[in-house]
Amino acid sequence: MSKIGIFDSGIGGLSVLKVIYEKFPNNIYFYIGDENYYPYGLKSDGEIIDRSEKITEFLISQKVDLIIVACNTVSSIALDHLKKKYEVPIIGVIDGAVEKSLKITKNGLIGVISTPLTANTHIYRDKILSKDSNVKVYEVGSQELVNIVENGIINNDPTYLIAKETLEKIKFVDTLILGCTHFPALQDLILKILPDVKIVDPAKEIIKYIKNYIDNKDKSVLEFYTTGDINSFKEKAKIFIKDFEIEVKRILI
Ligand code: DGL
User: What is the DSSP letter of 197?
Assistant: First the structure.
């Protein structure tokens, strides 16, 4: 089996872990939620680079074969830096989603919802336009929606209204990239507001990039770490992992 490290600022990256684990269960997975430093969406580039280096170094000390940067914000800001600095293969979530959105859009209008930081980098827009300059890309950042998921307040009227107000700005798109790991938890709500939109979940699009790095044989292990509070992480993790109880360890990095 292979050892795979996956990290995010919080529980959102569990949406990525879930997709990968379901496809390739026979590996050892180390998931890190950097809860003590959540939210990344409001940090400076320097802080994001610093946190992602610390986590990458922790994962390297665990001898992982592959690191998956589940977080879109880190993928936008620090991925190239991490790839240059460390020898271990490191994969982010953006490229696969870019390709998928171009494959499925019919009207050439693609939306991206993300943290404000990811939106400000315009990484999705720039990557999409570099492949096809005839489409249009509309990026919306909402930290409020990220926090709603992180705090587990998904199915209530205020959340619906905030999501509606956010999506109102881009209601003409036919394809919507969930450019933040937390947003797969809002998929049903999004489809209530934009029933015809085609959703791109970046987690599903990284499968093809990772299969060459892992052998997926013999053993299945899931280890969860947080830099924050263990019980709060466990509780919040239920948004994405409902089927079994997880053990969480705290790390100070
Ligand atoms: N979940 C992260 C992302 O995909 C960022 C959330 C946050 O910490 O603000 O961008």
Answer: P
What integer pLDDT is reported at residue 56 of this predicted model? 98
Active site residue 177: no
Same domain, 156 and 78: no
Ligand 1, atom 1: closest residue by C-alpha: 181
CATH code where residue 101 lies: 3.40.50.1860
Structural domain of 245: 3-92+205-250
Q: What pLDDT score does 28 carry?
A: 96
pTM for the model: 0.94
Mutate to test the pocket of ligand 1, among 37, 113, 115 (most ligand atoms within 8 A of CB): 115
Count of structural domains, the chain: 2
Predicted local distance difference test score (pLDDT) of residue 40 = 95
Pocket of ligand 1 (CB under 6 A): 8-10, 12, 38-41, 71-73, 115, 118, 146, 180-182
Task: Please report the pLDDT score of residue 153 as a whole number.
Answer: 80
Does 209 lie in the same domain as 130? no
Q: What pLDDT does residue 90 have?
A: 98
Residue 224 is predicted with a pLDDT of: 97
Residues 49 and 139 in one domain: no
Supply the DSSP symbol for 190.
H
Q: Which residues of the chain have pLDDT under 70?
A: none
User: What pLDDT is stored for residue 158 in this prediction?
Assistant: 87
Residue with tokens 């990557």: 127
